[in-house]
Amino acid sequence: MGQGAPVTLRRRAWLAAAATAPLAACAPAQHEMTGGFSGLALERGHRLRAAATPPPPVTPDVTRQVHTVIAGAGVAGLAAARALRQAGVDDLAVLELEDSAGGNARGARVQGMACPRGAHYLPVPGDNAPEVLDLLEELGLRQRVAGRWQLDERHLCHSPQERLFFQGEWQEGLLPVAGVGAGTLSQYRRFGAAVEQLRRAARFAMPAARAPLAPVHAALDSRTFAAWLDTEGLDDPHLRTYLDYCCRDDFGAGTATVSAWAGIHYFASRHGFHAPGDDDGADPARDAVLTWPEGNGWLTQRLAAPLGARLRTGQVVLRIEDGRHGVRVDALDTATGRTERWLARQCVVALPVFVAARVVAQPPDLLRQAASRITYAPWLVANIAIDRPLHDRPGAAPAWDNVIHGSTGLGYVDASHQNLRTVPGATVLTWYLALGDNAVAARHALLNQPWTHWRDTVLAELAPAHPDLPQRARHIDLTRYGHAMAIPRPGLARFSNDFGQYPGKNGRFSLSKKDSYPPFPVPRQGRLLFAHSDWAGYSVFEEAFTRGHHAGHTAARG
User: Fold this and answer.
1) Is the alpha carbon torsion for 207, 209, 213, 214 positive or negative?
2) Quick one: which of 246, 259, 176 has its CA closest to 536?
3) Distances (CA, A) of 292 to 101, 201, 384, 397, 409
4) pLDDT for 49
5) Rounded to the nearest 5°, which phi and psi values hold at 265?
6) CB atoms within 10 A of CB 231
7) Half-sphere exposure (CA, 13 Å, Cβ side) for 363?
8) In whole angstroms, what is the distance from residue 408 CA to residue 246 CA?
9) Cα dihedral sign for 254, 258, 264, 270?
10) In this predicted structure, what is the pLDDT of residue 138?
11) Strand 346-349 relative to strand 68-71: parallel, antiparallel, unpaired?
């Protein structure tokens, strides 16, 4: 399912173009390097871009009938399917555009090695996400031992977890420490104190709908994170570079684009912000994350596996219509070229909001308004297969997450980090680039630049820390996401709250009645139930899964 046939390239052709002294000093490689685009069938989604909104009804080649149709097999759609099956509803169909389920949380194999195509970890969930905690228990990742919950350590990120290439050396952690002045360390502590003060003033939760929007939240949501930092006098360049990295990593755009609510929520909804040296004696599991060689694809594969033939991939959903006697969903089967019509009692629309607004006939006001407000960050994910370990710079040992200070990209994770082999060998380095700060131009570049342009970008970014990468890399697999995730710009948290905190308001919401979970809002219109992380205004596993879970349980009662 590639977007371009693999192309062979000799290293000598690009060595000069990398234009870095360390690279130029390396002897040219004698092997060949392959690469190309894969992972997403962009032309399928672009069918909708050129069509009417929504496309008119068609005469289907075949008609099928089920209890519930789920449009989209990302995390939310898979969670909805699991919830339906938990409630005893097996008569369902999940329609997915791509050739595999998982959305932004899919895995891949590059040169025979497992690696992520997108989301690559799950922070250990807190008590506000009992639905996700139950999933972890179901998958054997969490169990009670002597009356206390314990996580399977094989799936927790092994140490060392992260490091930063800073001033020519590797250091532990992602905050610059070695060689910085007292003023920088003071600002680290001041920012940590500000986060803690805001946590005491108002509750922050993950998922966000579990914390009602308070005046403190609204004030933060009214301006960018950069503007808030300016007001607080937090201008240290090292702190600002780190916080910009955090926002790009979680939200796809930097501090000048995302809201202050989002920037604070990043820390306050989990474990706060702890300045180096101020957290001695803290619980070492405080910042623990679950990860696998294929990233969160490990989770989505296990959510998809029980569906069997209920999961239908390669399906372009063309039109969703809530009629007098039920829902009609028309989809194009890309394998056969036939149009299939699905008749169901209801439909869980687990599609990105901008897609849902194009395919839902007579879209309700809440959907139109959401589509007009949400902007999306493009992303590039590069999986680089190397034949043997890279020569390392001085400092901290190789880690799972490796970040180059001040770089455009977000660094890379090592797919073999969880491997217990005693002698390092071939592996895949997964490098991430978030492009939400200039989304329109970036989207155009992703679509039109050849794969070699992005190959050179990746290698030049990593050259300061790894000048021998050109001699080690064998293949680069590139995945382009034109609309990877919603960006939480100023005002979006308040908007999401209006459609997320007041169940029953104007008849828009249904509440889950499952006794073991707190109530959770499900945006709906008639027989259409909407479930996607877009409705939270940002993209993380806990949001998508929780929203899909409650939409599925609501559909089961329909």
Assistant:
1) negative
2) 259
3) 17, 36, 17, 20, 21
4) 73
5) -55, -35
6) 10
7) 22
8) 12
9) negative
10) 97
11) parallel
**What six digits make up the tokens of 99?**
């050739």
Q: How far apart are CA 415 and CA 292, in angstroms?
A: 8
From residue 112, alpha-carbon distances to 3, 101, 119, 412 in Å are 20, 20, 20, 19
Residues in the chain: 558
Non-local CB neighbours of 130 within 8 Å, separated by 6+ positions: 516, 517, 518
280-316 as b/e, with b when 16 or more CB fall inside 10 Å?
eeeeeeebbbbbbbbbbbbbbbebbeebeebbbbbbb
pLDDT under 70 in the chain at which residues? 1-31, 50-52, 279-286, 498-516
pLDDT at 283: 59
CB atoms within 10 A of CB 404: 20
Could you tell me where the beta strands, DSSP code E, fall in 267-388?
289-290, 311-312, 315-322, 327-333, 339-344, 346-349, 376-386
Q: What is the 3-state secondary structure (H, E, C) of 201-257?
A: HCCCCCCHHHCCCCHHHHHHHCCEHHHHHHHCCCCCHHHHHHHHHHHHHHHCCCCCC
Structure tokens at 410: 């977000």
Bridging pattern class, strands 7-10 and 315-322: unpaired
pLDDT at 51: 67
pTM score, whole prediction: 0.91
